[in-house]
Amino acid sequence: MASDASDTDTPSRHTEVERKFAPAETAVSPSFDGLSAIARVERLPEQRLDAVYFDTPGQDLAAHRITLRRRTGGPDEGWHLKLPAGPDERTEVRLPLGEGSDVPAELRDVVLAIVRDRPLAPVARIETSRTVDMLYGHHGTAVAEFCDDRVTATRAADDEHLTWREWELELVGEQADTGEALLDRLANRLFDAGAEPAGHGSKLARVLARAEDDAPESVRDPVHRAVAEQVAEMLVWDRAVRADAWDSVHQLRVVTRKIRSLLRASEDSFGIEDDAWILEELKLLAGVLGVARDAEVLAEKYETALDELPPELVRGEVRERLVEGGKRRYQAGWRRSLTAMRSERYFRLLDGLEALVAAEPPEAPPGEEAEPLSVESSYAKVRKAAKKAKAVAADADVPAAERDEALHRIRKRAKQLRYTAAALGKAKVADRAKAIQSLLGDHQDSVVSRVHLLKEATAARDAGEDTFTYGVLFSREAEVAHRAEAQIAKALKDLRKAVKAAT
User: Fold this and answer.
1) Domain end among 207, 235, 266
2) Which domain holds residue 295?
3) CDD domains from the entry (predicted)?
4) Is pTM beyond 0.70 here?
5) Cα–Cα distances in angstroms (integers) from residue 468 to residues 205, 237, 301, 402, 481, in the given order
6) Taking a C-beta distance cutoff of 8 angstroms, is the pair 107, 98 a contact?
7) Are residues 79 and 128 part of one domain?
């Protein structure tokens, strides 16, 4: 397994691809002879593993198929945080044992959106006697690991003891990325030896009697289901932001705004008003994330643009100001985002979102009916914004900034329509609305970029630097905006046709 960290005090991340099996107590270990991918098998000395698992009082980590343990014994003893990454795949975040038995802050922070301000305490202890067979390929490198485990587990809640036998198959090295077919062939040998699929994704799941792979209870209506899915996505992107994964701040911001848009479009279904605190908190969070997002987008935009220009057109300190300066602003914005995401205010927002999803829809007052979410009502807002933008564009006395804002309003309404249409299963409408959103997103990015270019060009001029390249980039951005404006009429026409066909 490859790690992305070299500092022993820094969490390292590993990809873990494994399957678990339930053999009979008297089953004989499988033979891997005759498999073309396996050249030899080496049995390692028996391992004694002792792991204490931690979770919140409500077992919130287990509910999200996450395990957190402190394990002694074996070659990888230490703290292990396992995060789901696919049917057979997990991302394992590791730290050395260190001193004491309290959960390290570095690991707690990874799952802070789930744990929030709830305590983490031991929920189970699992002791394992493990026999390991290392499976080597023809090039002499290990490709997989077969473990025969004898397990003794104790639940902290009632001190009940459980014992069972378990087999594990885990891919190692490069096979962890490309060896699904090998995993299937190896698994067949275990089935031939009398094993069955384990029926649980982790030993802890068995101890807690939690079926990790059970589908969640279906949500009542499309809108609640869509919001529930986005709240789940929010927790996933939260982890990515904390790891500073590429584009993660942008994606968390997108999810945050999508949730707000869906809630605003169906306030009656959730029993909230236009000025509900949860809508305001979502807006503020999106604003905080926007600082890092805008800096990241601009830095990448300018880096690409400068690389495309002939060298003789790139003059002065433009790359330092626009690219390196943007990267520094991104880091500052990212740290500001983390501060917000570690606050009690953020935890209460997540609590509120989960409560909205879980609550029964409010009953309408006698004699009234809640207005259902519909494509028609959302499209009417797009049409109104487009009509306003057309009138603004026709008035030569209107400032350019006001015309830009009118187009931006179309984008916001199209975005709301896209999310509504997707929630209601109107894919064609959602696609056409997305096209408008993307088109006018490029336009808005151009507006933001030109403002930024003017600001940086002024600073460069005041510092006595050559400002020629800023003008070149400004002209390119203006062309982007003009192209978007030229295409918007057709995009709106295509949307109108899609809405008509869907209704």
Assistant:
1) 207
2) 216-363
3) CYTH-like_Pase
4) yes
5) 63, 40, 18, 28, 21
6) no
7) yes
